[in-house]
Specification:
About 70% of the residues lie in helices and about 0% in strands. The protein is mainly alpha-helical and about 200 residues long.
Length: about 200
C-alpha cells in the first residue's frame, strides 16, 4: 500500500488537488479516475475508497472551482456598501475573468449533466452564488422578477464567456475587448447606465 493510501483524509484531498491541477492544465475531458490516481501516485482502485463513482470525484473537483469563484466574487463586491449596479458589474467581470482564465474548471463546473450536484455539497457551493446575483438584481431593479432577470443575465454572461473564448464574438462584433460586450450585456438586463 502506498503511503498516500495509508492516510485516508490526505488521500481524498490529494485526489481532488490532482484533479484540480489536471483540469486546469488539460481540460475536463482528461479527468478519469485512472489518470488522477496515476498522477496522485496511488493504485487505480484507491480513489474508489473516497469516491464511489467517477461523478462523485468530478463533483468534488467542481466544488473547488465554485469555492474559488465565490471567493473571487466576495473580494470583488467588497463589503456590500457599493451601489448594486457597481457590485453587479464587479461580479460580472469576475465571472468572465474566471471563465476565460480557468477554462477547464469553468467547463466542468457548469456541466450538471455530468455532475452529481446533490452530492458532496456541490449545490450548497454553487447555488449561493446565484442567490447573491438574484439579491443584487433585486436591489438594482426593485419590483422586477429578480430571479428571472438574474437567470437571463447569467445566461448572457455564460454565452459571452463561451463565445468570446471560442473567438466567435470578436469575429462577429469586431470587438477587441470583452469589456464592451460586458457593458452591453449589463445594460440589456439592467437598463442603460449613464456614462460619464
Amino acid at each position: 500500500m502506498d503511503q498516500a493510501e495509508k492516510n485516508p483524509g490526505g488521500l481524498r484531498e490529494r485526489l481532488v488537488d490532482v484533479g484540480v491541477e489536471l483540469v486546469a492544465s488539460q481540460g475536463a475531458q482528461t479527468l478519469t479516475l485512472r489518470e488522477i490516481a496515476r498522477r496522485a501516485g496511488v493504485s487505480h482502485g484507491a480513489p474508489r475508497r473516497h469516491f464511489p463513482t467517477h461523478l462523485h470525484l468530478l463533483s468534488a473537483i467542481a466544488r473547488r472551482g465554485f469555492e474559488d469563484l465565490a471567493g473571487r466574487a466576495r473580494a470583488a463586491t467588497g463589503d456590500g456598501t457599493a451601489p448594486p449596479r457597481a457590485q453587479l458589474t464587479a461580479l460580472a467581470r469576475v465571472y468572465l475573468d474566471f471563465a476565460l482564465g480557468e477554462r477547464g474548471m469553468y467547463e466542468l463546473m457548469f456541466r450538471h449533466d455530468l455532475l452529481e450536484s446533490g452530492h458532496l455539497g456541490l449545490r450548497e457551493t454553487s447555488l449561493p452564488l446565484f442567490a447573491d446575483l438574484v439579491d443584487l438584481v433585486g436591489r438594482a431593479l426593485p419590483g422586477a422578477d429578480a430571479r428571472a432577470v438574474a437567470g437571463s443575465l447569467w445566461a448572457g454572461l455564460h454565452g459571452t464567456a463561451q463565445l468570446w473564448g471560442w473567438g466567435s464574438l470578436q469575429l462577429a462584433t469586431g470587438a477587441d475587448d470583452v469589456e464592451r460586450v460586458l457593458r452591453t450585456t449589463l445594460d440589456a438586463h439592467l437598463g442603460t447606465e449613464p456614462r460619464g
